Amino acid sequence: MHFETKMAIVLHGDLLPWQGLNVAAFLAGGLAGGNPEILGEAYRDADGTVYSPLIREPIFVLTADTDTLRRTRQRAVSRGLTPAIYTADMFATDHDDANRAVVEAVGSDALDLVGVAVHGPRKDVDKVINGLKRHP
């Protein structure tokens, strides 16, 4: 199936496995929260049990270093997209308000990014993630 939009999550290549999974989960939630139209319908099994909807299209998971994550964020913003971000400082917090506080304390160019996610028109997302490699 061909989608007019595209989603990508870019993770820092040096994250521990648990950190990468945690960051990817938070970023996917950020994409869904900022773009509720990306959610499909609820699931239902043969017994009638209802399950939450999932994101309706594939998410490309890529890897990058610190400078490339900064460039990815900047490319997204310059194309009018609203990226979801996760910074290294957020690993030391334990709730959403604290996460926002550590981000707000740092300027855009100084954010210690460990993950960036983006959703938007296919051609724009392709330009944002151009040259990045898939996560192993």
> What portion of residues belong to β-strands?
15-25%
Average pLDDT reading = 96
The CATH superfamily name is: Bit1
CATH architecture: 3-Layer(aba) Sandwich
Largest sheet: 5 strands, mixed
What is the number of helices? 4
Tell me roughly what share of residues is in helical segments. 25-40%
Number of domains: 1
Tell me, briefly, the overall form: globular
Please write out the topology.
Layout: E1 5-12, H1 17-34, E2 43-44, E3 50-51, E4 59-64, H2 66-78, E5 84-87, H3 96-104, E6 113-121, H4 122-128, E7 133-134
Parallel strand pairs: 1-4
Antiparallel strand pairs: 1-6, 2-3, 4-7, 5-6
Structure characteristics:
136 residues, alpha+beta, Bit1, 5-stranded mixed beta sheet, two-stranded antiparallel ribbon, 4 helices, 7 strands, 35% helix, globular
Explain what the structure shows.
- The strands form 2 sheets. The protein has a 5-stranded mixed sheet with strand order 5-6-1-4-7, with helices on both faces. It has a two-stranded antiparallel ribbon with strand order 2-3.
- It contains 4 helices and 7 strands, in the order E-H-E-E-E-H-E-H-E-H-E.
- The chain has helices at about 15-35, 65-80, 95-105, 120-130; strands at about 5-10, 45, 50, 60-65, 85, 115-120, 135.
- It has a single domain, classed as Bit1 (3-Layer(aba) Sandwich).
- Helix 2 (about 65-80) runs antiparallel to helix 4 (about 120-130).
- Strand 2 (about 45) and strand 3 form a beta hairpin.
- It is about 35% helix and about 25% strand.
- The longest helix has 18 residues, at about 15-35.
- By secondary structure, it is α+β, with helices and mostly antiparallel strands.
